[in-house]
Amino acid sequence: MNQQTAHLLESRIPAQQSARRASSPPGRTTEARPALRVLVVENEARAADSLVMGLRRHGYQAESVDTGAKALRAHTEADLLLLDLDLPDLDGLEVCRGIRSASDTPIIAITARDTELDRVLGLQAGSDDYMVKPYGFRELLARIEAVMRRVRPRPPVAHVITSGPLSIDARTRQVRIDGGPVEVTRKEFDLLYLLASQPETVISRKQLMTQVWDDSWSRPGRTIDTHVSSLRSKLGSSSWIITVRGVGFRFGHA
């Protein structure tokens, strides 16, 4: 890391450490998590504005800066960086190394450099992913989701979930009611287990499509409703899965 990069980072490290302590209060739940803060580092104004507007339309808190120096000062306020490696003031790889030396903030490098060596250098500099221009916006959103899944720890979930007469075993992928087996499909099991593992949480249709069907793009349509209806029938009661109109579903009881 060169002296200019180190100097720009020096004044930001204490603030970042304070922010880390403040960002993880005891007992914080997933429902309380604010929108993901994305910092776009892009020196082309039109490209930056378009990217920021697109991210905001999809629920992200997005801001942009146009130089490496500004990125080194502002990165502590972001949950994820989209870093263009072709910057007017500092080498993008150096900026990436500087940020990585001071924080674990996820970085997706974005550049027109498309050789294998460029990709290797970008990843070795500390980026978590690497995209070559031009790219599709939907692919970018998918990569953001994938990076955040890797860096955000998941809370431990019980292997066997029991609620009254209902038992769901994640290891054997078996469902039982009063000790008797209930035959469910793979997706039905995944849907039921996801709801049962978060019994006090209303899970949106979009989240169900993403986590059960690995599809964050398609409209849910009748897919979820068909599986919910089948599960209710097999479990012998509609009260096991509660519909929250306009939102999604939550786990119920017998």
From TrEMBL:
Region Disordered: start-end pairs: 1-33
Ranges of residues in domain Response regulatory: 37-148
Pfam families on file: Response_reg (PF00072), Trans_reg_C (PF00486)
Record's signal peptide: none
UniProt entry keywords in alphabetical sequence: DNA-binding, Phosphoprotein, Transcription, Transcription regulation
Ranges where the OmpR/PhoB-type domain occurs: 158-253
Gene3D superfamilies: 3.40.50.2300, 6.10.250.690, Winged helix-like DNA-binding domain superfamily/Winged helix DNA-binding domain
DNA-binding region: 158-253
Top-level lineage group: Bacteria
Alphabetized InterPro entries for the sequence: CheY-like_superfamily, OmpR/PhoB-type_DNA-bd, Sig_transdc_resp-reg_C-effctor, Sig_transdc_resp-reg_receiver, WalR-like, WH-like_DNA-bd_sf
Sites of 4-aspartylphosphate modification: 84
CDD domains noted in UniProt: trans_reg_C
Protein name according to UniProt: Sensory transduction protein RegX3
Species whose genome carries this gene: Streptomyces thinghirensis
Lineage of origin: Bacteria, Bacillati, Actinomycetota, Actinomycetes, Kitasatosporales
